[in-house]
Specification:
Layout lengths: L7 E5 L2 E6 L1 H10 L1 E7 L5 E8 L5 E5 L2 E6 L1 H8 L5 E7 L5 E8 L7
Parallel strand pairs: 2-8, 4-6
Antiparallel strand pairs: 1-2, 3-4, 5-6, 7-8
């Protein structure tokens, strides 16, 4: 898999965007989770994880892992229904808001 075919992470202010290639979506469907990492050297990696689970959208950051959990029905709408993705506002435990965007990378569609 080349770099362009991997899940991409964009963080801007209080929003997190995950962009999935067709290959990512296939792996997500078969495994129920998808992760990538970005190395900053000396064992310092930022890991970002998308997983199916729970009854509502959830986001957490622990140690060096940004995890986004989505309910099965949201996952199915994108993976089985061919949807482009979704955007939701997640209320953090301190009351702040985080916009979570998970979308299909339309620029990288296979023929």
């Amino acid at each position: 898999m080349n770099y362009c075919d991997r899940m991409k992470l964009k963080i801007e202010h209080n929003s997190v965007r995950l962009r999935l290639s067709e290959e990512d979506i296939e792996r997500f469907v078969s495994e129920g989770a998808l992760s990538e990492s970005c190395s900053f050297g000396s064992g310092m990696d930022l890991i970002f994880l998308l997983e199916v689970g729970g009854s509502s959208l959830a986001a957490s950051f622990d140690d060096r892992t940004l995890a986004i959990s989505i309910p099965r029905e949201m996952s199915d709408s994108m993976t089985l229904g061919g949807g482009i993705g979704f955007t939701r506002i997640h209320e953090n435990d301190d009351g702040s808001m985080l916009e979570i965007i998970v979308e299909r990378d339309l620029g990288r569609r296979r023929k």
